[in-house]
Amino acid sequence: MQRNFKKDVKSLDEVFTFLGEQMTLLEIPPEPAYAVNLAVEELFTNMVKYGAGSREDISLSLMRDGEQLIVRLVDHGVDPFDPTATEEVDTSTSLEEKEVGGLGIHLIKHMLDNIEHTYADRCNVITIRKNLEH
Amino acid sequence: MFSITVKDDGEILVAGRFDASQVDVADAVFMKVTSTTRVNFQGLDYISSAGLGVLLKTQKRLSGSGQSLILTHMNKLVRDVFRIARFDLVFRIEEDA
Question: Hey, are the CB atoms on A9 and B86 less than 8 Å from each other?
Fold first, then answer.
């Protein structure tokens, strides 16, 4: 199931509604559902911030393949940007040194089983996978 | 849906989904905090890095004057996000009895 969303942080409400409906239909348990909600929010807001060169909608799709949930986000008409290539933040530093930059990517790398970036036809495509059994 | 309420005794209640679209709403409340304050997460279902950022900014500002936020009644999934971010090292998180 695929749907397009306006490239704006205000679209998040609609994005979460769509994710909630789809993950209920696909019978996704609460823990992986949380991880996917968080990953989609972090990646979507990244596209809003860094893909501002294009006003085209962001496409979001979900499918369940056995015990794996596969989610894809496509940012159309933009330059290449691989959010997974950013440096890991040091999350063990003291309060004074702690920063929020890069935290979203750190969270999703730890909460998902796989995240992959490809670029073709001026589209950044991010595919994430979450195992439903551990 | 996100809500943030300040009780008469100063405790802050957060509920619903604390995502990137709610940063300004939450910031407006946390900016007014000047002393040690309890933040009750009982009704909070979800937080992302955007929400963590608002809390971190407040904690940093308060620590300058020896004050802090105390986070209470966090559900397991939200607690996991704090743990993965290692935010449990810079916040006092009160576990449910």
Answer: no
Residues of B in contact with A94 (CB under 8 A): 90
Q: Rounded to two decimals, what is the model's pTM? A: 0.94
**Tens digit of each residue's pLDDT (9 = 90 or more) over B27-72:** 999 999 999 999 999 999 999 999 999 999 999 999 999 999 999 9
Over residues B69-90, the mean pLDDT reads 96
Domain residue ranges of chain A, discontinuous segments joined by +: 2-131
Mean pLDDT of chain A: 91
Supply the ipTM of this predicted assembly. Answer: 0.93
The residue in chain B having the minimum alpha-carbon distance to the alpha carbon of residue A40 is B48
pLDDT of B11 > 80? The answer is yes
Q: Do A12 and B21 touch (CB under 8 A)?
A: yes
Give the up-direction half-sphere exposure of residue A70: CA atoms within 13 A in the CB hemisphere. 8
Domains held by chain B: number: 1
Domain A2-131: CATH superfamily is Histidine kinase-like ATPase, C-terminal domain (3.30.565.10)
Domain of B87? 2-94
> Given its phi and psi angles, is residue B66 left (phi above 0), alpha (psi -120 to 50 degrees) or beta?
left
Instruction: Output the pLDDT for position A53.
Output: 77
Query: How many inter-chain contacts (A to B, CB under 8 Å) are there?
Result: 61
Tell me whether residues B50 and A45 touch, CB distance under 8 A: yes
